[in-house]
Amino acid sequence: MPGQFDGFVGRHRRGVTLAILIAVSLLCLVISNRAVILRPKEIGLSVAGFFQKGVTGFFRWFGDTAGSIRQLRLAREELARARERLADADRTAREAVDLRRENAMLRELLGLAQVLPAQRISAGVIAKEHDNLFSVITINKGSRHGVLPDMPVVAFQDDLEGLVGRVIRVGLGTSQVLPLYDPECLVSARLDVSRFEGLASGQGAERSTLLMRYVKKIATDRIEYGDLVVSAGLGGLYPPGINLGRVRDIRAETYETSLTLEIEPIIDFDRLEYVFVLGVTGAP
Amino acid sequence: MGRDLKAIVAAFFIMAACVVLQSTILGKVAILGVRPDLALVVLMFVALRRGSMTAQVSGFAAGIVEDLVSASPVGFHMLLRTLIGFLYGIFSGNVFVDPLLMPIVLTIVATILKGVISGLVSLLFGLQSSGFMYFAGRLWIEAGYNALAAPFLFALLNLLKVFRQAEKEGS
Q: Between chains, do B131 and A134 touch, taking CB under 8 Å as contact?
């Protein structure tokens, strides 16, 4: 019997190796992911949905192409309007920077305590995700520098501090940061002026905008393009008041009970070289 | 087996080097944030030259490295590379690979295959990766980018003796 088994393995060496490698990979996936969906109905739905999405997307592409000529004319008009709005937004941004500077000076004059967290660990970005399926930023500071999982990470660009993401994995001398543009990076957010709250998350691509969901519909008239969005500090992961981005678009679908805001991130992730890990988690 | 082992080790180190390059300096030449997957092109080359066994084992080993440096759960890239290595290895010795056209065509197919497999694994394991949105446009940019790199990488890898002789395999 052992001889027969050896013979079978010898004859089907390639297939047996493949089966072992797939089994090991799946086992690792199940263990590391901790949440395998092994319900036949859901699996069937997922697989069918994958192809349905593909077919719908294919035909929608044709429909969109046919309608693109009309869209082009509309886009030109929209562009002219957007340019006007951009000029307004630029003015507002400059005013905001001035106001922040003035605010900092006044705080200093009044002797108020700074709202910055106590400890900041500076770090350099050494690598990013190697393929285009997941999102991660690797920094050159790890546990021996005091970095811990779930610590928020910020950076300064164009005189503004912006949220980069949070630490998800810590090595001895390096750490991995889940960037703000990842769909799994959820941040409780607040509009800086009107104070309405929502939940911000990324869309997966480095250059994509963020989406701020669950903003109350009554906020529609009180939100302006270019309004600053900051972290709300709810949930304890991110301190309040860290800049996330500026409102670029307001989506108010009639069938939705809340608004979805498109947010242009403060941080340009293409230019990201240095970051600060906030040593104190939660609200300061 | 000695020669197979050499090919597996060589392929593993080349793919691991590609992963390091992709995560660092190749970010500078990313198009719309999309970087080429050189490790995939190397895996394809190894599979076509050395067959399924060498490709699936070296792909699996390189997948371990990829899972360690990536945000993906351990096993994701291992599975992806094993399957692609095996599938392409089936055609070893049966496909004439010219210096230009075939590398481009095969790379585009491999990238699409990567998109399909990663999408299915993401769905089955409930992963919130951008692999879900892979068909939205980034896949096609990556396919083009990989295809552009393929003829050059194939030419370079052709110079290595260790990959030259095709594997004679059983079933």
A: yes
pTM score above 0.95: no
Q: Which of residues 140-169 of A touch B (CB under 8 A)?
A: 168
Q: Verify whether the Cβ–Cβ distance A49 to B123 is below 8 Å.
A: yes
Please check whether residue A108 is in contact with residue A244, taking contact to mean a CB–CB distance below 8 angstroms.
no
Nearest to A205 among B60, B73, B130 (CB): B130
Burial A82-119 (b: 16+ CB within 10 A, else e): eeeeeeebeebeeebeeeeeeeeeeeeeeeeeeeebee
Domain locations in chain A as residue ranges:
57-115, 120-278
pLDDT digits (tens, 9 = 90+) for B87-119: 999 999 888 889 999 999 999 999 999 988 988
Q: A245 forms bridges with which residues in the sheet?
A: A229, A265
Q: Which residues face A198 on adjacent strands?
A: A189
Q: What residue of A is the nearest CA neighbor of B125?
A: A36
Region of A146 (left: φ > 0; alpha: ψ -120 to 50; beta: rest) is: left
ipTM of the complex: 0.84
CATH fold for domain A120-278? Thrombin, subunit H (2.40.10)
